[in-house]
Amino acid sequence: MKISFLKKIIWVAFGVILGGSLVLGTSVLAKGDIENNSSKDDINLPLAELRSFVEVFERISKNYVESVEDKKLLDGAISGMLSSLDPHSAYLPPESFKRMEEHTSGDFGGLGMEVSMENGLVKIVSPIDDTPAKKAGILSGDLVIKLDDKPVKGKTLLQAIKLMRGKPGSKIKLTILREGAPEPLSLELTRAIIKTNSVRHKLLNNDIGYVRISQFQLRTGSDLLKSIAKLKKENKRPLKGLVLDLRNNPGGVLRAAVQVSEAFLTDGLVVYTKGRNKRSKITFEADSGDVMNAKPIVVLINEGSASASEIVAGALQDHNRALIAGRTSFGKGSVQTLMPLNNGGAIKLTTARYFTPNGRSIQAKGIEPNVVIDRVKIEKLKQSDFGRIKEKDLEGHLENNKKEKTKSFKDTSVSDLVDKDYELHEAIGLLKGMYFAQQMK
Q1: Is residue 164 in some structural domain?
Q2: What are the C-alpha distances in Å from 180 to residues 141, 185, 420?
Q3: Residue at 75 is within a domain
Q4: Which ranges in 263-373 belong to alpha helices (H)?
């Protein structure tokens, strides 16, 4: 399409909008008057800016060093318009929109990590459990500066994501900056089809249940209920409490977060959203009942817990239903709405903020835990027996009666947690204390 012809089409379209505004204003704004008392002055077309847009479009088409398709320019304009709003609003071309739907349903390809854009670099919000990213040691907060030795700077988030995706089994090298690391790290990952099971569970000794939610998908709420039912059946007696692990959970479907929250609440507000559009003002109430029957709950969060994770933690914290332990969460308190377009793509637009039952906005602040568990590195101290005298070294000491059977008090399920997962070890200690306090009442 020649630029002069395109320019005429654009200006004709603007003319139709302007010329038809009187007629459109009569019908549309009359409806608006009923809803929010708006007036005809509420609709204003930025004519000067639109003229500048057409001028820039024309100059690029005529003078850029290489020929550029009109579609590419217009897609870029749409993408730039959305990305200028906030880090979470974006234009999704048809292919990207399809991948978004696959991600939400829980079956997609790639490296297995939730990412965002920060200062032109890809920031890892959270690696997903049992994926190449998690196995390679990717951490929340890592910044990707190169993909296969190609700089990320200058690329859009969608372009970077496209480079990270590829044929399952193929490899890609990520160069990352990590806080505290003296120099960039180079990690090689093997792409895979990511089939995520968002809920996993296991039974710990002392009648304690453990449920890990890695992300919030459409079926997460029902899967949680199934996991708790299995824990109860496996334990063969009532559970003493539950550890709900939301660490490095990047969020997901809002409705799933509500379902998880109301699984532990008998009633009351879970979360509410507010935005400019009346349709974005929604409240969610709990009505399903507490599946744990008021038994104590500890929720684990960290800096990789975002969005839907923060909704759950905030709701249970405000209702005093759970003790929140760990570190302050990511702080994403905004709601995105997917709006499909006629071309098969969509825009992901930030349309509201969400608030906890007590009216707290988590945006850029996060959920602060009731009990802080700092990130620590546990190392066993090397001990030397040189110069030490024990009972067995004393002359005439009594021999050990090996015939007498002794009972071991070692908790095989949690004995190694100090080494493997210090935060979970601490959460179990908190839960035991809560249970005993509850029994003393």
Answers
A1: yes
A2: 11, 11, 21
A3: no
A4: 308-318
Q: Domain check: are 62 and 167 in the same one?
A: no
Residue 384 known to be catalytic: no
Q: Which amino acid is at 292?
A: M
Distances in Å between the Cα of 392 and the Cα atoms of 121, 259, 298, 346, 400 are: 62, 60, 44, 76, 10
Q: Is the dihedral of CA 338, 126, 332, 266 positive or negative?
A: positive
Q: DSSP 3-state assignment of 47? A: helix
Same domain for 277 and 236, yes or no, is yes
* pLDDT of res. 29: 25
Asked if 16 and 157 sit in the same domain, the reply is no
Question: For residue 425, with 0-12 CB atoms within 10 Å meaning exposed, 13-18 middle and 19 or more buried, which class applies?
Answer: middle
Over residues 419-425, mean pLDDT: 87
Global pTM value: 0.75
Measure the CA–CA gap between 197 and 422, rounded to whole angstroms.
24
Q: Which of 307, 309, 329, 334 is catalytic?
A: 307
Verify whether residue 307 is a known catalytic residue: yes
In a domain, 20, yes or no: yes
CA dist 147 and 110 (Å) reads: 14
Say how many C-beta atoms besides its own lie within 10 A of residue 85's C-beta: 11
On whether the CB atoms of residues 38 and 32 are closer than 8 A, the answer is yes
Residue-number span of the structural domain to which 240 is assigned:
199-372
Assess if residue 118 is contained within a domain.
yes
The active-site residue, picked from 134, 295, 332, 348, is 332
- Domain's final residue, options 134, 166, 194: 194
CA 419 to chain centroid: 27
Q: Which of 25-39, 131-145, 247-261, 390-404 has the lowest mean pLDDT?
A: 25-39
Angle between helices 3-36 and 47-63 (to 10 degrees): 150
Tell whether 17 and 150 lie within a shared domain: no
What whole-number distance in Å separates Cα of residue 161 and Cα of residue 151?
Answer: 13
Given a contact cutoff of 8 angstroms between Cβ atoms, the answer to whether 322 and 316 are in contact is yes
Q: What is the C-alpha separation between 82 and 79, in angstroms, rounded?
A: 5
Of 8 and 274, more confident: 274
What are the φ and ψ backbone dihedral angles of 274, each rounded to 5 degrees? -140, 135
For residue 253, what are its two tokens?
A: 């479907």
Minimal CA–CA distance to 325: which of 258, 262, 241? Answer: 241
Q: Read off the pLDDT band of 295 (50, 70, 90).
A: very high
Catalytic residue among 155, 245, 318, 348: 318
pLDDT of 52 above 60: yes
Whether 318 is catalytic: yes
Q: Which of 349, 372, 395 is the last residue of a domain?
A: 372
